[in-house]
């Protein structure tokens, strides 16, 4: 059952972002430069996607050869690339973790594989999440990168229900390449760059209007400083 869009509209959206890399180079980047010439004087300072990292922690289950093999196969199906097995850097006796102990899987996607995975994420995966209400702007970190968690692998089209022994999720980090000059290397600038790029890429952000009430970047900075001081005050009170 279709909610808001007709089949024609859905087809137009798919055609528009059928090749996100091409859309970025020929559409998004020129528009950003044209609309914000002072902000993006140099084309190399326009925010762009650098890589996508997909991680899954397995804990002690990674010691089971069959479970590890099954998870590696899932990663290959979903990402089109063989994952790297992550290992403990040091021993932690309290958690029964030994040095070099296998703990999870990670994949880093770049280039065509990155854009292919992103297209699938935007067009199919998010739509399969039950009660999905969009992505929060608060998931940007200080470097302007975005991290989101997915609770299950069944939302990916490559995974068959009958092949899944255990529901497991992922952590996906979308890493940005800002290339900003030093005078625009503050966290707020990087986060705003990420928000701008996500908006053009049609990411389903659920609180895009969060900053509409502010008239300038200075107002946003003051609001952030106020929140930072409030958190610091609460922390100091909690320690007393």
From TrEMBL:
GO terms, molecular function: rRNA binding; structural constituent of ribosome
Major subcellular site: plastid
Keyword annotations: Chloroplast, Plastid, Ribonucleoprotein, Ribosomal protein, RNA-binding, rRNA-binding
Subcellular location per the Swiss-Prot or TrEMBL entry: Plastid, Chloroplast
DNA-binding in keyword set: no
Cellular component terms (Gene Ontology): chloroplast; ribonucleoprotein complex; ribosome
Domain Large ribosomal subunit protein uL5 C-terminal as annotated: residue spans: 103-179
GO biological process terms, semicolon-separated: translation
Thylakoid listed as a keyword: no
Domain of life: Eukaryota
Similarity comment: family membership: Belongs to the universal ribosomal protein uL5 family.
Quaternary context: Part of the 50S ribosomal subunit; contacts the 5S rRNA.
Protein's name in the database: Large ribosomal subunit protein uL5c
Organism: Halamphora americana
